[in-house]
Structure to design on (70 residues):
C-alpha cells in the first residue's frame, strides 16, 4: 500500500471509495474497522489538500488574467 502522502487526487479518491465500501459491507473486527476508518480519514484529508491546491491555482490564474486585462 502506497503512503498517502504520495497519492495523487484520483488515486486517493479511488482508495477512499474502496474504504467506504469495505466499511459499509461490515464483517470486519473492531481493530480492522478502526484502522480502515483512520486510513479513510487520512485519504479524505489528502483529497481536500489536492482540491485546495487546485482551487488556489485557478484563483491565481484568474487574478493574473484580470491584471493582464487592466
Amino acid at each position: 500500500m502506497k503512503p498517502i502522502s504520495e497519492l495523487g487526487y484520483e488515486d486517493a479518491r479511488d482508495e477512499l471509495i474502496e474504504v467506504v465500501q469495505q466499511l459499509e459491507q461490515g464483517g470486519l473486527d473492531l481493530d480492522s474497522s478502526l484502522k480502515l476508518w483512520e486510513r479513510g480519514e487520512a485519504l479524505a484529508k489528502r483529497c481536500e489538500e489536492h482540491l485546495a491546491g487546485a482551487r488556489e491555482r485557478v484563483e491565481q490564474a484568474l487574478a493574473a488574467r484580470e491584471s493582464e486585462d487592466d
